[in-house]
Amino acid sequence: MITAHPGDRLVDFVDGRLDAASADAVRAHLAACADCRAVETELRAAVEATATLRDEAIEMPADLLASVSRALDAETVRAAVPAPVARIHPLLRAVVSGAAVAALVLLYLQVGTPRPASDLPTLVARDLAAVGSRSLPFAVQAGDAATLERYFAESTGPRVRVIDLAMMQITLEGATRQTLAGRPSALYSYQTPSGARLVCQMYEGRLTDLPPPESVRDENGFHFQIYTRGGVTVVFWQEGDLVCVLASELPAAEVVALAVAKAMAPA
Amino acid sequence: MTDERRARFDAEAVVHLRAVYNAAYRLTRDPDRARDLTQDTMLRAFRAFDTFTPGTNARAWLLKIAYSVFINQYHHERRTPATQSIEALEMQHGFEPASPAAPMPDPWQPDGWSEPVVREALEALPEEFRATVLLVDVEELSYEEAAAVLDCAVGTVRSRLFRARRLLAAALRSYAIAHGRAAAKTEAR
Q1: Quick check: A264 and B108 CB within 8 A?
Q2: Do A181 and A123 touch, CB atoms closer than 8 A?
Q3: DSSP code, position B54
Q4: A180 found inside a domain
Q5: Domain containing B40: what range?
Q6: How far is B105 from chain A (nearest CA, A)?
Q7: B64 near A CB under 8 A
Q8: Per-residue b/e over B119-158, b at no fewer than 16 CB within 10 Å?
Q9: Does residue B123 sit at the A interface (CB-CB below 8 Å)?
Q10: Given this model, what pLDDT does residue A89 score?
Q11: Which residues pair with A188 in a beta bridge?
Q12: Which domain holds residue A16?
């Protein structure tokens, strides 16, 4: 008697992934079914053929290890040194050391200058809190980038790409469209395994619309402007016509590193 | 970041540099792009090293990053692989995906395929099917590890392997018929 064809379970059989009882059942089926035996032959032939690629002579560039090592060294140094406070007060920077400048500028930005109600970094930090308190609810809740991109594609506003950070164990949680200082903004949010939240927004605009940053970083051809607002690190960068911003209460270095990881040239 | 963190990264990740480069080369088939992809992968892995769970498969973790970078680059370079859909390929080889037990015209036992022939057959597959075969059959990841790399279900890995392997076998058989068994064997090592 021929039982139901095993179908794609045949690959489990060929790869030895079935338990003894299931493998016996497939074996019995194969004994009686010439069609499935032919498929089994194909599957084994393909495995045997592709195995030849494991022996392919691929020559790794001799200097690749040294080159990677240099890049990692540079990254180690860059991460250990506080981000430069360039482009803020060149005159001050000329006479005072970097650390003092950082402290002064921070003081200047956080205390000395009253921020306008439309201060974008402040608004982005507030949106992060609003997502956490659910006063800014998601229009769509999903953990996969495709669903969130579909939502953005089907709703009015700038079309945006949703970057999957699952490889860093940071999962997507939802998205919505809202208004950021009068600009239509696409917002989506991530959560880390520890429950920390990262909110990303994208809107049409220019970095030049932003107030002077507390620090900047240039990486992979992108210019990142970094702000701190009430314990929230807010990082802006430009992708084509869109300004992207990432906000989180995670340590500043982590937020900046994630912004760098997310930044992509516009398609 | 500290020297200690760097030393741990060297021990856990940099030791897999050759494996990452090989995978990058198999994906891109271009030494310069493979080099860039490897560099990018290692740097991103270093930045994200705090998220790596010690004791898990570091090579699979690096491959996940490499595939992710590769796919994103594909996406943003708008490079469309010159492949047909899996359904079109299945139709071309005369079998229906819905009835996987369709009979083969004749028994066929290939042996000793040369790398270029196999590579050509593999490169005709749509990207996600090719990637699945590369991860499982060449990089020797488990289905579960491949599913994590490709961000899909284990069942999807199984299904892609099933269809991709059958197509590979059919393509190799077509090659053998076109060139004659003798020709196919002549090219074998």
Answers
A1: no
A2: yes
A3: T
A4: yes
A5: 3-77
A6: 9
A7: yes
A8: bebbebbbeebbbbbbbbbbbebbbebbbbbbbeeeebbb
A9: no
A10: 40
A11: A175, A200
A12: 9-55
Question: Which chain A residue has its CA at the smallest distance from B114's CA?
Answer: A52
* Same domain, residue pair A153 and A258: yes
Choosing from B26, B47, B77, the residue where a domain stops is: B77
Q: Is residue A201 part of a domain?
A: yes
Shortest CA gap A18–chain B (Å): 13
CB contact under 8 A, A266 and B76: yes
**pLDDT tens digits for A161-210?**
888 887 777 899 999 998 888 888 999 999 988 888 999 999 999 999 89
Domain-embedded: residue A94: no
Query: How many domains is chain B partitioned into structurally?
Result: 2
Q: Which range is least confidently modeled, A22-36, A202-216, B126-140, B169-183? A: B169-183
pTM metric for this prediction? 0.53
Query: How far is Cα B105 from Cα B108, in angstroms, rounded to an integer?
Result: 9
* Nearest of B119, B93, B122 to residue B108 by alpha carbon: B93
pLDDT at A17 over 60: yes
Q: Given CB atoms, is B98 within the 8 Å cutoff of chain A?
A: no
Any A CB within 8 A of B45 CB: no
Could you tell me if B180 lies within 8 Å of chain A, comparing CB atoms?
A: no
For B50, the closest chain A residue by CA position comes to: A168
For B122-161, the pLDDT digits (tens) are 888 888 888 899 999 998 889 998 998 888 899 999 999 9
Domain end (from B60, B77, B94)? B77
Report the SS3 class of residue A97: coil
